[in-house]
Design a protein that fits this description.
The complex is a heterodimer of chains A (168) and B (191).
Chain A: H1 14-28, H2 36-53, H3 59-92, H4 162-167
Chain B: H1 3-9, H2 22-45, H3 48-64, H4 75-94, H5 101-109, H6 112-121, H7 124-136, H8 139-149, H9 155-162, H10 166-187
Helix pairs in contact in B: 2-3, 2-4, 3-4, 4-9, 8-10, 9-10
The chains are: A mainly alpha (168), B mainly alpha (191).
């Protein structure tokens, strides 16, 4: 059974269905120019000659140039990445004046028993701890002549009341 | 015997499988299927030269994969699928395609009896307009209705070529014709 479209739509307007069928028939019954088979066979013959004239190469050899190119590219990329990383590290490394010298005692032979000349820095006495510092009453102060943007309401500075005076 | 049955009778698979060389097999495939493949290609390209190119490309691919010929169960479906993919790929690449003139050329190339019958049914301008409307259909419906136009293909073969079921193909064709009728009524194509 062919996929006959003409029996699918009894509900369609018959004239429209006939129009559609006629257009489809024109496409579906297209006839190639004479000699199509001969042209195809000629092209196939020339293609076969071309295939047979090519030297038989294994798939490995066929893809070898591409693989070699990929390998070289990967090596170059790796070199660029490593060189860039090393250059960057050298640029940001802190300048060391001299390596710390270890003075070994009489009996010790390891780093654990070494005498480290760099003593801990003493804390200067008399200064209060950072937590003891006070930064003020904790209330923001606005100078009385500060320029204010139009429309911004700024509270007036607190006035000294009698009670606060008595407290002070 | 109806016209379609006559077509089917001439479409018996070629007696070749792997008892003869692949060259003879391919030659038999060319003799058997080149016209049908041309029609499949023409339904999409609407251009005789492009359709012939697609058929030639199809058989070139067959030649490149001739070692697999023995694995193919249904040569017709296999070849239709190849040519279908080729023409869709070409269409995607080209984006635009010349239409109209080739439909008229084809109308001139039809056998005289067919031409007379179609000339009474529809003019080449109307064909071009209807085919342009077919191009506006959703892809699934469009593919189904275009392949259904190829006389040699059965619903089962269309389904196999498009990778779906026969019932799906039937419903796609039904929907396509219904939508096409709506578009035609909107366009007001004179009858």
């Amino acid at each position: 059974m062919t996929a006959d479209p003409m029996h699918h739509d009894q509900n369609l307007n018959p004239s429209i269905a006939a129009t559609i069928d006629a257009a489809l028939r024109t496409v579906g019954s297209a006839t190639p120019a004479s000699g199509l088979e001969g042209r195809i066979l000629n092209r196939l013959a020339s293609e076969r000659l071309k295939i047979e004239s090519e030297p038989a190469r294994s798939p490995l050899l066929r893809w070898l140039p591409a693989r070699a190119l990929g390998l070289v590219t990967a090596c170059l990329l790796g070199f660029v990445v490593v060189a860039g990383s090393v250059t960057h590290s050298r640029r940001i490394r802190p300048q060391l004046v001299a390596p710390p010298s270890l003075v070994l005692p009489g009996q010790g032979i390891g780093a654990a028993s070494a005498v480290h000349p760099a003593a801990p820095a003493p804390v200067p006495a008399g200064q209060p701890g950072r937590s003891a510092r006070r930064s003020g009453p904790g209330r923001a102060r606005i100078a009385p002549h500060t320029r204010k943007a139009p429309g911004v309401a700024v509270p007036a500075p607190p006035t000294k009341t009698a009670s606060s005076d008595s407290q002070n | 015997m109806s016209c379609f049955e006559g077509q089917l009778a001439s479409w018996a698979p070629p007696a070749h499988p792997m008892t003869v060389s692949s060259t003879q097999t391919i030659a038999a495939l060319v003799a058997e299927y080149s016209t049908a493949l041309y029609r499949v290609a023409f339904s999409v390209t609407r251009n005789a030269a492009e359709a012939e190119d697609a058929v030639q490309e199809t058989f070139l691919r067959v030649l490149r994969h001739e070692s697999r010929l023995g694995e193919i169960r249904d040569y017709r479906v296999w070849l239709v699928r190849i040519v279908w993919n080729i023409v869709l790929d070409k269409k995607r690449r080209a984006k635009t395609r010349p239409e109209g003139e080739d439909i008229a050329d084809h109308a001139r190339a039809l056998p005289s009896s067919d031409r007379a019958a179609d000339a009474t049914a529809i003019s080449s301008q109307e064909q071009a307009r209807i085919l342009a409307l077919i191009d506006q259909l959703p892809a699934r419906e469009r593919e189904a209705i275009l392949l259904s136009a190829v006389e040699e293909l059965t619903t089962a073969e269309i389904a196999a070529a498009l990778g779906t079921t026969e019932s799906s193909i039937r419903s796609r064709i039904f929907r396509a014709r219904r939508e096409l009728a709506v578009l035609l009524e909107k366009e007001g194509i004179p009858r």
